[in-house]
Amino acid sequence: MPRPELDLLRGTLDLLVLRTLSAGPLHGYAIAAAIKQRTDDAILVEEGALYPALHRLESRRWVAADWGYSDNNRKARYYSLTAAGRRQLKTQVSLWQRYVDAVAKVLASEEV
Hints:
Elements: H1 12-21, E1 26-27, H2 28-38, H3 47-59, E2 63-69, E3 75-81, H4 83-108
Antiparallel strand pairs: 1-3, 2-3
Helix pairs in contact: 1-2
């Protein structure tokens, strides 16, 4: 039986995009595909969420965009992490880990 998709918690899409781009420049479709693959199809990022997030990250100067050509020779915008984006990624990973640890403590408690 297939597992249901997970809804993105507020603020996690930026973190997922930044982390995905830390490996190198990608176009939007490839970013969504990488997130889908890395989460074993649990998180599907829709265009309606991805492109506003990319524009938001670009306006904050955490990512930069340049035109290039995709594997199928289509013109595409490639996004890459900036130095500020790498710093922000480190900050967000640290905050997210604190959040995960705190939630895990509540889930591990014996009271239900």
